[in-house]
Amino acid sequence: MPYAEQDALYAQGRTVPGSIVTNAKGGHSNHNFGIAFDVGVFEGASYLGESPKYKATGVLGMELGLEWGGNWKNMADQPHFQLR
Q1: Distance from C-alpha of 36 to C-alpha of 5, rounded to nearest angstrom
Q2: CB atoms within 10 A of CB 3
């Protein structure tokens, strides 16, 4: 992800309308370095922002040795995975 895109996400809920979705500015997110990714859970063509299926996906990711954002104490991020 380009730094400018990360900075735009960081601005949400701070200097632009919206909810806070990240604590990382551009250059401080593992997404910027290709070692993190987010997944989406869908039912048909409908994206589910919240679903118990994220927990099942988290278990699978952890079994593969990934760090799962759903375990984070500060600002849990269930769709997020990254290399340890």
Answers
A1: 15
A2: 13
Q: Which residues pair with 43 in a beta bridge?
A: 46
Nearest to 31 by CA among 54, 55, 60, 8: 8
Q: How confident is the model at residue 79 (pLDDT cuts 50, 70, 90)?
A: very high
Q: Rounded to an integer, what is the distance from CA 71 to the centroid of its chain?
A: 12
Q: Six-digit token pair at 8? A: 């735009």
pTM: 0.85
Distance of CA 79 to the CA centre of its chain: 5
- Tokens representing 77 are 């991020």
pLDDT tens sequence across 20-32: 989 999 999 999 9
